[in-house]
Amino acid sequence: MKVKRDQITGLVLVVLGIIFFVLISQFNKPLTAEYPGPKLMPGIAALGLVICGLGVFFNGCRQKEPDKAIMSKAGLLRMLVSFAALWLYILGLKYLGFLIVTPFLVYGLTTYFAVQSKAQTKLWVRIVFAIGVTLVIWFMYVQLFDMELPIGELFE
By C-alpha distance, which of 132, 133, 138, 135 is closest to 150? Predict the structure, then answer.
């Protein structure tokens, strides 16, 4: 039996979901029913990776037709950069906190993808977008949901 690309992709997603879950489990705030804390949304995302990975894996097991062309090198590079950025983001959240790390992540990824797609976005637009996304997420969690976001071990 030949291993299909979907099976490999599914297993990679499952492993990455487990790795992300292990990384976010190192946050100091406990996950309780009264206060879910800053682990909730990244935990849901990690669980989503595992569930989607299992779905992709089992779909690959049922697939009868042969695989089509594999992802291009540029597409693979974009995927690896995205996963590396998420991994660094989780580590950054632990030590530097949400308000410092998030604008850099958003700016870095938007700049990377703009360069890759040859989009003509101005520097100030990407900076304002990164700060705006960070502030909107902060406002939603802290003000509307009355939840804490990681402040980072260096600032505790």
Answer: 138
- Structure tokens that stand for 135 in this block: 């502030």
- pLDDT tens, 11-38? 999 999 999 888 888 877 666 666 666 7
CB 90 within 8 A of CB 23: yes
Residue type, 150: P
* Residue range 71-99, pLDDT digits in tens: 778 778 888 999 899 899 999 998 999 99
Compute the C-alpha angle 13/138/15, nearest 5°.
10
120 neighbors 109 (Cβ within 8 angstroms)? no
27: closest CA among 140, 155, 149?
149
Q: Is the pTM of this model over 0.85?
A: no
Name the packing angle between helices 98-117 and 73-95 (round to 10°): 170
Beta-carbon contacts of residue 87 (< 8 Å; ≥ 6 apart): 19, 20, 23
